[in-house]
Design goal:
Elements lengths: L1 H16 L9 H6 L3 E4 L3 E2 L6 H8 L1 H6 L3 E2 L2 H10 L5 H5 L3 H8 L3 E14 L4 E13 L4 E11 L9 H17 L4 H14 L15
Parallel strand pairs: 1-3, 1-4, 2-4
Antiparallel strand pairs: 4-5, 5-6
Length: about 210
């Protein structure tokens, strides 16, 4: 009886450690009913100076597929630069109402790159991306947020000669170290946040089929 009680207590404690993602509240989003979204240059907290441009290029597609008009990001970037806004952090500090009014947008999407890096080892190179997403309506109300973190680490192949496996793993790690490919992870993160995750943004007015 004592053993059974301890087992039940342990099972209860283990269950209590499992955390479920907090369900999003879409009230503000549904109230705003955005039709067009301005994606502004991202805030870069990583050490990769090219990360913001790569990330910016990957954002419009899932938003458009979700059913929203997305202002062309390169054109928007040029207009912002003409207004004196060059850096993502500088733009993120501007009132969203000002940015939305400048383009006639219904909402503004701010993205922060927290991680865009690769950690190197002899037989594996781990690539990590981590992003914060924040969408604000043209009246300044925050209507949607999300956070994505994805990690890619090539695994050693099973079977075959152990020596051949080690050599193959070392070659793969060296190739990844020479040119880490962040874009598949970035695209997957954006898709999970916007399209296919457990709590994506609601389908927009131009969606082919709205759930």
């Amino acid at each position: 009886m004592k053993t059974t009680l301890l087992t039940l207590c342990a099972a209860f404690a283990l269950t209590g450690c499992v955390t479920q993602p907090q369900k999003k509240d879409y009230t503000a989003f549904n109230t705003a009913k955005p039709r067009s979204i301005l994606v502004v240059p991202v805030v870069n907290k990583s050490l990769d100076v090219d990360a913001p441009n790569y990330m910016l290029s990957a954002l419009p597609v899932p938003l458009a597929e979700r059913g929203y008009y997305v202002f062309p990001v390169n054109t928007s970037k040029m207009v912002l630069e003409q207004e004196g806004f060059y850096e993502g952090e500088q733009i993120a500090n501007q009132p969203p109402q000002l940015l939305a009014r400048l383009f006639g947008a219904d909402a503004v999407l701010f993205v922060t790159i927290n991680r865009w890096d690769a950690q190197y080892a002899v037989f594996a190179t781990t690539v990590t991306v981590e992003f914060d997403y924040r969408m604000v309506a043209k009246d300044g109300a925050e209507i949607w947020t999300d956070k994505q973190r994805l990690v890619y680490s090539p695994q050693q192949q099973n079977g075959g000669s152990p020596l051949a496996t080690l050599i193959a793993a070392a070659i793969t790690a060296a190739m990844t170290r020479a040119a880490p490919n962040y874009m598949p992870l970035a695209r997957q993160a954006n898709n999970q946040a916007v399209l296919v995750g457990p709590q994506p943004i609601p389908a927009g007015p131009y969606a082919v089929s709205r759930p």
